[in-house]
Amino acid sequence: MYDTNVCATKAVLGAARAVGIGNLLYVSSVLALFHPGASRIDESTPLADLSEAYSRSKRDSEAYVRGLQQQSVPVQITYPTAVIGPDDPKLSAANRGQASLVGQMLPRSKTGFQCVDVRDLAQAHVWLLKHPADREFESARYIVGGHVYPWDELRLRLEALLGRRIFSPRVPPRLMRFMGATADRVKAPVPFETQISAESMTINTQWSPADSSRFLTRSGLCFRSGDETFGDTIRWLVETGHVPHKKAGRLVPTGTVPVIGKHGAP
To answer: Which tens digits make up the pLDDT trace of 107-143?
Structure first.
């Protein structure tokens, strides 16, 4: 993953620079700016010190792209937070997380969850491509972060949408980080698939809100409501069998037939 992400970034943007393409957009990740426990993150935040392959690849690709900006290569950078929304062809990690929160458990801890609707992110990218930077390329960096939801608020919001209670135990932050560190130690000799890791649990318990003010001020755009994002996402997860109908509450799409999921359960 690391080699593919970093080498592909250098190959594609390097080639674009070589042939003189004058309007480039690189999609980074707010993880490249993540500093546990900081009061906020913005475009001036230093690059992060990260451990997992995906996170390191975003940070090191970012360093390369910033180098291009310093050389006046016309490339803009965006930093999405967790991207959720309907019509996800490969079920991203963020949407898998949504399916787990609704269908299984929403553990509550410190800080919260920040996400952006995929449709808002797409609109932001279209806008930036239509309004390329023509100077001061080093300031052409934009957090597109959507909304921040403290864990308690997220539980209440989802329960109101679903019309039912969600299993949502309060878990001490230190316990969550211990679970992540333990999973990393176990995965070293015996690899297995899990979303639990030391880094992911640090993100879940020490998230710093990412500030989208620069992009919103420049573009004049706004982010759609969380109810619309979560509602459309959950309906789609149900329609495609990623969330059981019985877990969808009042969001069960009218007239739909239960889909057999990959584990054989409707």
So the answer is: 888 788 999 999 999 999 999 999 988 777 778 999 9
Please give the structure tokens belonging to residue 87.
Answer: 């019509």
Tell me whether residue 259 is in a domain. no
| CA–CA dist 22, 18 (Å, integer) | 11
* DSSP-based three-state secondary structure for 41: strand
Tell me which residue of 242, 252, 232 sits closest to 162, measured CA to CA. 252
Q: Using alpha carbons only, how large is the chain's radius of gyration in Å?
A: 19
264, part of any domain: no
Q: How far apart are CA 212 and CA 42, in angstroms?
A: 7
139: domain CATH number?
3.40.50.720
Q: What are the C-alpha distances in Å from 236 to residues 118, 153, 248, 254? A: 13, 22, 10, 12
How many structural domains does the chain have? 1
Range of the domain at 39: 2-251
- DSSP three-state, residue 25: strand
Q: Per residue in 1-53, pLDDT tens?
A: 889 999 999 999 999 999 999 899 999 999 899 888 788 999 999 998 877 78
| Token pair recorded at residue 222 | 């706004």
